[in-house]
Write a structure and sequence with these properties.
The chain has helices at 3-30, 42-75, 93-98, 106-109. The protein has 110 residues and is mainly α. It has one domain (3-79).
Length: 110
Amino acid sequence: MDKKQQKEIKIMVLNEIEKTQKSIIDYKDMTVPEGLDDAVGRISRMDAINNKSITQAALRQAEEKLKKLNYVLSQIDHEGFGKCKRCGNQIPIGRIILMPQSVHCVRCAQ
């Protein structure tokens, strides 16, 4: 991988980190507990609890993705970054962005 590609990946990862951080903030805002003073019906309260559960799961996934993106960012300048651990071929940039934890190309991951 040449320096130009590394720079492009770094920019993509930084952009993805920024988007993920914004998502985390939004998810945290959506998971704030509702006060008991709010007059809502039983069905509405059950729906709110269900939605909160789904949002909390999305929050956990976003936090995990952020951790992995930060790891990728720390590894970009190391030799061998972006190469498959099994076959040594270059891992496509799109795969690195979508699945930062991947150390194998698509063929070897199957």
